[in-house]
Structures are given as structure tokens and as C-alpha cells.
Amino acid sequence: MKISNIKIITLTILLMFINGCSLAQPKVDQDSILTTLQKYDPSLKRNHFISTSVDLNDDKCMDSIVLMNKNSRYCGARGCVMLVMVCQENELKPIGKISYVSPIVSLSKQKTLGFKNIDVVVRPKGVAPYQATLQYNGKAYPTSALFAKPIDKRLLDRILFKTKRVK
User: Fold this and answer.
1) The pTM is what?
2) Do the strands 158-162 and 149-150 form a parallel or antiparallel pair, or are they unpaired?
3) What whole-number distance in Å separates Cα of residue 34 and Cα of residue 13?
4) 24-57: per-residue pLDDT in tens?
5) pLDDT tens for residues 57-106?
6) CA–CA dist 152, 98 (Å, integer)
7) Beta strands of the chain (E only): which ranges?
8) What is the C-alpha separation between 3 and 19, in angstroms, rounded?
9) For residue 27, with 0-12 CB atoms within 10 Å meaning exposed, 13-18 middle and 19 or more buried, which class applies?
């Protein structure tokens, strides 16, 4: 009888722990992302970006990749700013603000230091566009797609964004 009570108590604690973990994950819907972005720039609006949820480090907590668009002030002739936000301490925290990102973004199957690489198309001034991979350095992703490691042209693994090019 005592063993079955211990099993029931253990199972109850385990279920409470599992439920608590799932409730502790931050929301990664558009409104929650907008609220997070407005902490850094209150002028941002819902129509200034597109976003997607991904698990960059396989910790079962959804992270977010946000690509600004031409409606924001974060785009230029060679691309827009992309933000990478990772689930930490029950909220989304930025670990990358990457400039010059063209609107074709793909999540790679390859990882660097436990985080998935993010493949982008880079359009440097005076040079033909090329594919490059953004790699996590232990603290953040590169600050510019121009610093990304060029890769051989390949099929994109999981396309996150593919929109019209900003002119």
C-alpha cells in the first residue's frame, strides 16, 4: 500500500513539473513578438515585420526569428535587419541583430556550438548575390550578413522567409 502511494505522489509531482515547464515557455505569436520588439523600439508596428517560430538549440522551447520589412525603418537597398530571439528564463531574448539580410532565409540542419545555422542570401554592393550561413559564436549570431560564411549553392533546408526583394 505504501509503494502505490509513493508512486501516485511521484506521478503527481512529475505531472505538475511537466505542466509547469510547458506553461513557462514564452509565447511566440505575432502580438507577443511585437511586445518584445517594442521594448527596444516603441515605434514598431505589427506590419513592420514577419516572424516564425523555430527551436534553434533543440531545448524544446520555441525561439523566434524576425525579419523586418520595408514598412519599418530597418531596411535598405541590400536587405533588412533580422533579429534572432531565443527562449531564455521564460522569455524571448535577442541573441542576434543581423543587418543586410535579403528576404530568403532558411534554417540549416547544420549546427555551430549547439545552435542551428541560418542560411541567407547576401547581396553585397557591386558583387553578385551569394548564399551564406550565419553561425552562432557562443554568444550571438554575426551582426551583418556580410560577415556570414559563404557556402556553396545548395537547396535550402527549411525556408523560413521568402518574400519579394526590397528595392
Assistant:
1) 0.79
2) unpaired
3) 35
4) 566 778 888 999 999 999 999 999 999 999 999 9
5) 999 999 999 999 999 999 998 899 999 999 988 888 999 999 999 988 99
6) 21
7) 49-54, 63-68, 75-76, 79-88, 91-101, 104-112, 115-122, 130-134, 149-150, 158-162
8) 24
9) middle
